[in-house]
Amino acid sequence: MAKGNRNKALKPAQKTQQKIISAVQQQIKTEQFQGPIPSPKILAGYEQLLPGAADRILTMAEKEENHRHAMDKMSLTAETDGLKNEANDTKRGQYCGLIIGITAILAGTYTSVNGFPWAGSFIGAGGVIGLVSAFIVGRKNSNENQDTKKATPVPEKNNINPE
């Protein structure tokens, strides 16, 4: 029998079975909603169960938002104040260093002029070298602190309420 004539040799019942096509249809529906309040459908469901619940949920979300904004504002204000205080401390330290340096140089000069050149040299040079070394060590330590601050990961804010 030839290949093209294969269907002719089948019985009529077999032909109808081959022609029946079964179709399976599957439908998947997903909904996703993200935010501080439930989706409108869920919110409507709450309202049906308990009249006024939707308004209470929205009020709660508004209070949470206001609280979060207030906390962020307080955090930024504290950080800004800290930076200002740090800058003021740095300026104050530099002024004090300038006063100490000038005092050391003047004391060394006075001592040298009054007949003690070696002692005056040590006083003047010692004061200046001490200040220079303090600035160098202080800058090195502050750079190391900044490197460790940069390496410390900052946790991300989580917008999901753990209620």
Summarize, please.
The chain has 163 residues and is an all-alpha fold. The protein contains 4 helices and no strands. The model has no long low-confidence stretch (mean pLDDT 79).
Give structural notes:
The protein has 163 residues and is mainly alpha-helical. It has a domain of 114 residues. It is built from four helices and no strands. It is elongated, with a radius of gyration of 41 Å. The mean pLDDT is 79.
Short descriptors:
163 residues; mainly alpha; 4 helices; 0% strand; elongated
Describe the SSE topology:
Blueprint: H1 12-19, H2 40-49, H3 53-113, H4 117-151
Helix pairs in contact: 2-3, 3-4
Proportion of beta-strand residues: under 5%
Class by helix and strand content?
Answer: mainly alpha
Residue ranges: pLDDT <50 for 5 or more in a row? none
Q: Would you count the extended β strands for me?
A: 0
What helical percentage do the residues reach? 55-70%
- State the separation between the terminal residues, measured CA to CA: 75 Å
| SSE arrangement, N to C | HHHH
